[in-house]
Amino acid sequence: MKRLSIVLAVLILSFSGNTLLYAHSNGATSIHEISKEAAPTASLEIKKDPTGGFNVHVVTTNFIWRPEMASMKHVPGEGHAHVFLDGRKIMRIYNEWFHLNTYQFATRAGEQLLNIEFVGNDHAPYTIEGSPIGDQKLVDVAPDEIQPAKSPAPKALAGLAVLLILALTVLLFRHKKAK
């Protein structure tokens, strides 16, 4: 019985937790509070891409993009940006241009808030009086440019089938023992 419990626990653990974590947790444990005068500025210029999604230009001042220093020591005025769509962090950007692939990141059609937030090399956000520094704009995501609805993962279904077979085996074993 102890072996069966171990096998069941291993199976449950191996088939659970298969969902991917949202992109790039920032790992920041602090913030970089700066004055309005020294703060970087951002302005998003967004154009619909004819092949889908949006091409985004992040116009900045007082900010040095430093992709080679990502996840390294903080240097004031340097860093990269985190991108959020509809309240979910979807990626990091390391320069002033990026393509927002709505098919990859949008989970619903319609107007959604796209925003970027400046962060230091160490991923801690730049803030003024506690508010993150960046910009935001609404984008209108077309219904044919979103992620398709997800069906249960085949691995999860296989795991459920294995658990069902094991449960039936245990019941049969107990039934035979009781006779």
Topology of this protein?
Elements: H1 2-15, E1 32-33, E2 41-48, E3 54-61, E4 64-65, E5 78-85, E6 88-93, E7 97-100, H2 102-105, E8 110-119, E9 126-128, E10 131-132, E11 134-141, H3 154-178
Parallel strand pairs: 1-9, 4-5
Antiparallel strand pairs: 2-3, 3-7, 5-6, 5-8, 8-11, 9-10
Class inferred from helices and paired strands = alpha+beta
Q: How much of the polypeptide forms β-strand, as a percent range?
A: 25-35%
CATH class of the domain at 29-148: Mainly Beta
The helix content is: 10-25%
* Oligomer kind: single chain
Give the count of helical stretches. 3
Q: Which CATH architecture of the domain at 29-148 would you pick? A: Sandwich
Low-confidence stretches: 15-26
CATH topology-level name of the domain at 29-148: Immunoglobulin-like
Can you describe this structure?
The chain is α+β, with helices and mostly antiparallel strands. The protein has a domain at 29-148: Sandwich (Immunoglobulin-like), CATH 2.60.40.10. It has helices at 2-15, 102-105, 154-178, and strands at 32-33, 41-48, 54-61, 64-65, 78-85, 88-93, 97-100, 110-119, 126-128, 131-132, 134-141. Strands 4, 5, 6, 8 and 11 form a five-stranded mixed sheet that branches. A three-stranded mixed sheet has the order 1-9-10, with no helix packed on it. A hairpin with a 5-residue loop joins strand 2 and strand 3. The model is unreliable at 15-26 (pLDDT under 50).
